[in-house]
Amino acid sequence: MTWAVVLSVFGLCSAGCALAVAVMAVHDLRRWQARSESLESTVEALRREVALVASISARTGRRVQRVEHEYSDVAERVDVVESRGPASSVTLSLDQAIECARSGGDADELAAQFGLSSGEAELVARLHGRKKSA
Prior knowledge:
Blueprint: H1 3-70, H2 74-83, H3 87-102, H4 107-114, H5 118-128
């Protein structure tokens, strides 16, 4: 064999190897592109879900604040009721408040003197207070 034939065979083998490498590279590139597109769609779906969760979280936060605001005085009312002592003491205090209302005490006086809430004092005054004449 001559050098020309050997070089030709070597060149042909090199070209074949280069072609095989190029085909494999194109195949890998297509696979990576498909994977990239899949990941991009997954990321977009995750963004939508995060936006939805953020929206739900914001609404929940507003609801919690509203509930806290609406029931902020409950602790104060519980303290007032607990400060009245046992049930017999509450009954006695309520009986005294009724007597005071019958003798002309108004709701503000009942609330201050007997530790009633304004709603309780108003109720006792309306139910047991003196009737106003026109």
